[in-house]
Amino acid sequence: MTVLATALDTGGAAYAQRRAEMLAKLAEVEEAHGQALAGGGEKYLTRHRGRGKLPARERIELLLDPDTPFLELSPLAAWGSESPTYAVGAALVTGIGVVEGVECLITANDPTVRGGASNPWTLKKALRANEIAYANRLPVISLVESGGADLPSQKEIFIPGGALFKDLTRLSAAGIPTVAVVFGNSTAGGAYVPGMSDHVIMVKERAKVFLGGPPLVKMATGEESDDESLGGAEMHARTSGLADHLALDEPDALRQARRVVARLNRRKAHPDPAPAPPPKYDAEELLGIVPGDLKAPFDPGEVIARIVDGSDFDAFKPLYGTSLTCGWATLHGYPVGILANARGVLFSEESQKAAHFIQLANQRDIPLLFLHNTTGYMVGKEYEQGGIIKHGAMMINAVSNSKVPHLSVLMGASYGAGHYGMCGRAYDPRFLFSWPTAKSAVMGPQQLAGVLSIVARASAAAKGQPYDDEADAGLRAMVEQQIESESLPLFLSGRLYDDGVIDPRDTRTVLGLCLSAVHTAPVEGARGGFGIFRM
């Protein structure tokens, strides 16, 4: 075995400082998560319970197999949104959990937030959940209680929102089961969620499913109607046939949903591996590895040693392109190829090494894990003449056309084209998570502000105008502050540029759950088809 050694001094002052900084950042993340858990607030939660209804997360808990984990996705959607009406979490809970032994993608409207109405962030979050379900062939269970679109923001929802219904039909056409459990309102476009699901369960005297409610019907046709005769659960079970199962109450609806899943006859493409040995080192130590100043390097081997099985890692080209660590390991029994930034900058050697390694992983049908801490590809005359553009493009080409599942974790910096080469969001990783220490932008705040200053100074000189140094200092400070705030993980997670900000200590567990999910579908690499590599 090739067990990684550790040089981490857990008793040193530097470790203690890094750990304290990480814990402070984790407290900020926890506070943001608390806002998502609060939903619409105590007033609306009390009203909801007073109607004999369960909150969204309690519905999920009853649905899941006992003592199994739930990997919540995008919990901070809408964080930092300009509109105060868009609550953190976007009035929707999404995630992956086990129902009757089957890994499922679960979505649940939060009716304590504006009646579960969908705003633009709800839509983005739901579309991301469907994307994950489709890529990993996970059955979808929708726990529905929503008044439809948040009408004041309809201009941002109506046209792109049609993709939700398209997704449901594509999932079904691909043989991926869809189940809708309707607890309350499912109106207007929302009526198509049960309408386009394979299996539908409705709660008696609670579920209301109609394209147009009584007021709209009155306006459109002059017809007088009531909720129950127009779209009640019993009517849909006995008359329209939209409901396949009529539940007595919410627990009964969730019990019936479990029975539906039990009868799906689902089999994973890859059986679960045997239990694997844990890392040799304590996950608690992950708190003290990443420095607060991301310009300072850290050894990604210290992270790898604390997340892979037995801390066992076989390095690939360890003496070549040493700013990028590549190698093979297993994680919870699943084979993985790992690419981890060692000193931030990617040179030509690292780029070629990465392209080679990605091709090998595709030949072997092994998923890839990208651990980000990069300031991007190296710039300068020597490196441009040495071909950094074509070599960086080679790495990005390999990432773009790789067919094995990709997982990404942003540990530190993830700037510029390095974010792309390390499989950032635009390159369709199956899952992407951030640590609280992560930052991502086109470049670092100081560099970006400096570039703008140089350009402005050159423009003034070209026009023969004096340059205002005092105004320049103010502009630089403003730009640095803006870019810093927009590169932080809470901001990025709020815009769904990741699937969640995670505690570093949970990294192995989160990645294990993701690897289990991706192995529900076949894992097959590209055989050629990488396009032209400029040599």
TrEMBL record:
InterPro entries: AcCoA_carboxyl_beta, ClpP/crotonase-like_dom_sf, COA_CT_C, COA_CT_N, MCCB/AccD1-like. GO terms for molecular function: ligase activity. Residues 22-276 form the CoA carboxyltransferase N-terminal domain. Residues 278-525 form the CoA carboxyltransferase C-terminal domain. This is Acyl-CoA carboxylase subunit beta. It comes from Streptomyces benahoarensis.
